[in-house]
Amino acid sequence: MKEILLIVLANGLVNNIVLARFLGLCSFMGVTNKVDSALGMSMATTFVITLSAGLGWVIYHWILVPLGMEYLRLLSLIMVIASLVQLLELFIAKQSPALYRTLGIFLPLITTNCAVLGVALLVLDDNLSFLHSVVFGFSSSLGYSLVMVIFSGLRERQGNASPPLVFRGAPINFITAGILALAFTGFAGLAG
Protein backbone atom coordinates (compact mmCIF):
# COMPACT_ATOMS: atom_id res chain seq x y z
CA MET A 1 0.00 0.00 0.00
CA LYS A 2 2.90 2.33 0.76
CA GLU A 3 4.30 1.84 -2.77
CA ILE A 4 0.97 2.76 -4.33
CA LEU A 5 0.69 5.92 -2.22
CA LEU A 6 4.23 6.89 -3.21
CA ILE A 7 3.42 6.36 -6.90
CA VAL A 8 0.30 8.53 -6.58
CA LEU A 9 2.12 11.38 -4.81
CA ALA A 10 5.18 11.19 -7.04
CA ASN A 11 3.23 11.27 -10.30
CA GLY A 12 0.59 13.72 -9.21
CA LEU A 13 2.84 16.32 -7.65
CA VAL A 14 6.60 15.75 -7.83
CA ASN A 15 6.98 14.27 -11.34
CA ASN A 16 3.91 15.93 -12.77
CA ILE A 17 3.50 14.90 -16.39
CA VAL A 18 2.94 18.49 -17.58
CA LEU A 19 5.09 20.64 -15.30
CA ALA A 20 8.03 18.33 -14.62
CA ARG A 21 8.16 16.13 -17.73
CA PHE A 22 6.73 18.77 -20.11
CA LEU A 23 4.35 16.39 -21.85
CA GLY A 24 0.85 17.39 -22.93
CA LEU A 25 1.64 21.08 -23.33
CA CYS A 26 -0.56 21.51 -26.43
CA SER A 27 -3.76 20.70 -24.54
CA PHE A 28 -2.40 22.50 -21.47
CA MET A 29 -2.25 25.75 -23.44
CA GLY A 30 -5.13 25.08 -25.83
CA VAL A 31 -8.03 23.90 -23.67
CA THR A 32 -7.49 25.86 -20.48
CA ASN A 33 -9.42 29.02 -21.38
CA LYS A 34 -12.30 27.95 -19.12
CA VAL A 35 -12.45 25.64 -16.12
CA ASP A 36 -15.37 23.67 -17.62
CA SER A 37 -13.49 22.77 -20.80
CA ALA A 38 -10.33 21.98 -18.84
CA LEU A 39 -12.29 19.70 -16.52
CA GLY A 40 -13.91 17.90 -19.47
CA MET A 41 -10.57 17.44 -21.21
CA SER A 42 -9.04 16.25 -17.94
CA MET A 43 -11.71 13.59 -17.47
CA ALA A 44 -11.35 12.41 -21.07
CA THR A 45 -7.57 12.28 -20.83
CA THR A 46 -7.73 10.50 -17.47
CA PHE A 47 -9.78 7.76 -19.07
CA VAL A 48 -7.41 7.36 -22.02
CA ILE A 49 -4.17 7.56 -20.01
CA THR A 50 -5.31 5.06 -17.37
CA LEU A 51 -6.65 2.50 -19.82
CA SER A 52 -3.77 2.85 -22.27
CA ALA A 53 -1.25 2.28 -19.47
CA GLY A 54 -3.06 -0.88 -18.39
CA LEU A 55 -3.88 -2.23 -21.85
CA GLY A 56 -0.43 -1.36 -23.13
CA TRP A 57 1.12 -3.36 -20.28
CA VAL A 58 -1.11 -6.35 -21.03
CA ILE A 59 -0.40 -6.33 -24.76
CA TYR A 60 3.34 -5.90 -24.25
CA HIS A 61 3.81 -8.51 -21.52
CA TRP A 62 1.23 -11.09 -22.63
CA ILE A 63 1.49 -10.84 -26.41
CA LEU A 64 4.59 -9.05 -27.67
CA VAL A 65 7.20 -10.42 -25.23
CA PRO A 66 6.14 -14.10 -25.53
CA LEU A 67 6.19 -13.79 -29.33
CA GLY A 68 9.55 -11.98 -29.34
CA MET A 69 7.97 -8.93 -30.99
CA GLU A 70 8.96 -6.24 -28.49
CA TYR A 71 9.87 -3.96 -31.39
CA LEU A 72 6.13 -3.50 -32.08
CA ARG A 73 5.62 -1.83 -28.69
CA LEU A 74 5.25 1.72 -30.03
CA LEU A 75 2.88 0.68 -32.82
CA SER A 76 0.70 -1.33 -30.43
CA LEU A 77 0.50 1.57 -27.97
CA ILE A 78 -0.54 3.96 -30.74
CA MET A 79 -3.26 1.54 -31.84
CA VAL A 80 -4.55 1.17 -28.28
CA ILE A 81 -4.61 4.94 -27.74
CA ALA A 82 -6.32 5.64 -31.07
CA SER A 83 -8.98 3.00 -30.35
CA LEU A 84 -9.66 4.35 -26.87
CA VAL A 85 -9.97 7.91 -28.17
CA GLN A 86 -12.43 6.82 -30.85
CA LEU A 87 -14.58 5.03 -28.26
CA LEU A 88 -14.39 8.03 -25.97
CA GLU A 89 -15.31 10.44 -28.75
CA LEU A 90 -18.38 8.39 -29.67
CA PHE A 91 -19.43 8.18 -26.01
CA ILE A 92 -19.05 11.93 -25.35
CA ALA A 93 -20.83 12.87 -28.60
CA LYS A 94 -23.77 10.70 -27.55
CA GLN A 95 -23.90 11.52 -23.83
CA SER A 96 -22.84 15.18 -23.73
CA PRO A 97 -23.10 17.05 -27.04
CA ALA A 98 -22.30 20.35 -25.28
CA LEU A 99 -19.00 18.99 -23.94
CA TYR A 100 -18.29 17.47 -27.34
CA ARG A 101 -18.70 20.90 -28.99
CA THR A 102 -16.67 22.62 -26.24
CA LEU A 103 -13.71 20.29 -26.61
CA GLY A 104 -13.90 20.50 -30.40
CA ILE A 105 -10.75 19.47 -32.20
CA PHE A 106 -8.89 18.80 -28.95
CA LEU A 107 -10.90 15.64 -28.25
CA PRO A 108 -9.63 13.64 -31.26
CA LEU A 109 -6.21 15.20 -30.71
CA ILE A 110 -5.91 13.22 -27.46
CA THR A 111 -4.63 10.53 -29.84
CA THR A 112 -1.56 12.65 -30.52
CA ASN A 113 -1.21 14.00 -26.97
CA CYS A 114 2.34 13.15 -26.01
CA ALA A 115 1.33 12.82 -22.34
CA VAL A 116 -0.81 9.79 -23.17
CA LEU A 117 1.90 8.01 -25.15
CA GLY A 118 4.57 9.18 -22.71
CA VAL A 119 2.85 7.60 -19.71
CA ALA A 120 2.27 4.33 -21.57
CA LEU A 121 5.95 4.21 -22.54
CA LEU A 122 7.13 5.14 -19.04
CA VAL A 123 5.12 2.25 -17.62
CA LEU A 124 6.91 -0.18 -19.92
CA ASP A 125 10.35 1.40 -19.48
CA ASP A 126 10.09 1.31 -15.68
CA ASN A 127 9.11 -2.40 -15.84
CA LEU A 128 6.21 -1.97 -13.43
CA SER A 129 3.70 -4.64 -12.47
CA PHE A 130 0.17 -4.46 -13.89
CA LEU A 131 -1.28 -2.91 -10.72
CA HIS A 132 1.52 -0.38 -10.47
CA SER A 133 1.11 0.43 -14.18
CA VAL A 134 -2.57 1.22 -13.78
CA VAL A 135 -1.87 3.27 -10.63
CA PHE A 136 0.96 5.05 -12.44
CA GLY A 137 -1.34 5.91 -15.34
CA PHE A 138 -4.18 7.03 -13.09
CA SER A 139 -1.99 9.13 -10.82
CA SER A 140 -0.24 10.73 -13.80
CA SER A 141 -3.62 11.66 -15.23
CA LEU A 142 -4.72 13.05 -11.85
CA GLY A 143 -1.63 15.25 -11.86
CA TYR A 144 -2.46 16.30 -15.42
CA SER A 145 -6.03 17.09 -14.37
CA LEU A 146 -4.90 19.07 -11.32
CA VAL A 147 -2.60 21.24 -13.39
CA MET A 148 -5.21 21.74 -16.13
CA VAL A 149 -7.87 22.92 -13.67
CA ILE A 150 -5.48 25.17 -11.71
CA PHE A 151 -4.13 26.75 -14.88
CA SER A 152 -7.59 27.28 -16.35
CA GLY A 153 -8.66 29.02 -13.13
CA LEU A 154 -5.61 31.26 -13.35
CA ARG A 155 -6.36 32.04 -16.99
CA GLU A 156 -9.95 32.96 -16.12
CA ARG A 157 -8.58 35.34 -13.49
CA GLN A 158 -6.25 36.82 -16.11
CA GLY A 159 -9.31 37.67 -18.18
CA ASN A 160 -10.37 40.08 -15.43
CA ALA A 161 -6.94 41.68 -15.23
CA SER A 162 -5.41 44.13 -17.65
CA PRO A 163 -1.71 43.33 -18.06
CA PRO A 164 0.44 45.60 -20.20
CA LEU A 165 -0.21 45.23 -23.92
CA VAL A 166 3.11 43.44 -24.49
CA PHE A 167 2.13 40.66 -22.07
CA ARG A 168 -1.42 40.01 -23.25
CA GLY A 169 -2.24 36.61 -24.72
CA ALA A 170 0.46 33.98 -25.02
CA PRO A 171 3.24 35.83 -23.12
CA ILE A 172 1.26 36.11 -19.88
CA ASN A 173 0.11 32.50 -20.26
CA PHE A 174 3.68 31.26 -20.56
CA ILE A 175 4.76 33.38 -17.59
CA THR A 176 1.88 31.99 -15.53
CA ALA A 177 2.73 28.43 -16.60
CA GLY A 178 6.35 29.00 -15.58
CA ILE A 179 5.36 30.27 -12.15
CA LEU A 180 3.03 27.30 -11.73
CA ALA A 181 5.87 24.94 -12.69
CA LEU A 182 8.11 26.62 -10.11
CA ALA A 183 5.41 26.16 -7.49
CA PHE A 184 5.24 22.43 -8.26
CA THR A 185 9.03 22.07 -7.95
CA GLY A 186 8.49 22.81 -4.26
CA PHE A 187 6.94 19.36 -3.96
CA ALA A 188 10.24 17.84 -5.06
CA GLY A 189 11.87 19.49 -2.06
CA LEU A 190 9.32 17.84 0.22
CA ALA A 191 10.08 14.42 -1.23
CA GLY A 192 13.86 14.75 -0.88
TrEMBL record:
The residue ranges crossing the membrane are 6-31, 43-65, 71-93, 105-124, 130-151, 172-191
**Is Oxidoreductase set as a keyword in this record?**
no
Alphabetical list of InterPro entries matching this protein: Ion_transpt_RnfA/RsxA, NqrDE/RnfAE, NqrDE/RnfAE_oxidrdctase
State its location(s).
Cell inner membrane; Endomembrane system
**EC number(s) stated in the UniProt entry for this protein:** 7.-.-.-
Give me any GO biological process, just one. Answer: electron transport chain
Sorted UniProt keywords: Cell inner membrane, Cell membrane, Electron transport, Membrane, Translocase, Transmembrane, Transmembrane helix, Transport
Gene Ontology cellular-component terms for this entry are: endomembrane system; plasma membrane
Q: What is this protein called?
A: Ion-translocating oxidoreductase complex subunit A
